[in-house]
Amino acid sequence: MTGIIDRIEEGFAVVELPEGMVNIPLAGSPDGLREGLVVVVEAGKIIAVDEAESARRAAAMRSRFARLKRRKQKE
């Protein structure tokens, strides 16, 4: 199952999964976890980062921000 890291706090990654938010211990997780990454979760552990989906989502957010910025400048 995949989820999105909402935040990192006190040794846990707070991950948004389809059924809701869950706290997953960082111990044993891949290095370099940060907010916004799409991760693969199995048996209550983060086993991998979905790099392609994370990059796609980041590009989509940059595009949305650029559109909003252009619209704001026109006002």
What order do the helices and strands come in, and which of them pair?
Layout: E1 2-9, E2 12-17, E3 20-25, E4 38-42, E5 45-49, H1 51-74
3D structure, described in words:
The chain is α+β, with helices and mostly antiparallel strands and 75 residues long. It is 32% helix and 40% strand. The protein is built from 1 helix and 5 strands. It has a 5-stranded antiparallel β-sheet with strand order 3-2-1-4-5. A hairpin with a 2-residue loop joins β1 and β2. The longest helix has 24 residues.
Provide a concise account of the structure shown.
Helices cover 32% and strands 40% of the residues.
Feature tags:
40% strand; 5-stranded antiparallel β-sheet; 75 residues; 32% helix; alpha+beta
Give helix and strand order, one letter per element, not per position: EEEEEH
- Record the strand order, biggest sheet: 3-2-1-4-5
Described by the principal axes of the CA atoms, the overall outline is elongated
Write down the overall mean pLDDT: 95
Ends apart, CA distance between termini: 43 Å
Alpha-carbon Rg, integer: 15 Å
Number of strands: 5
Which bin fits the share of residues in helices? 25-40%
Decide which structural class fits the backbone: alpha+beta
Number of helices: 1
Q: β content, as a range? A: 35-45%
- Poorly predicted parts: none
Profile the largest sheet.
Answer: 5 strands, antiparallel
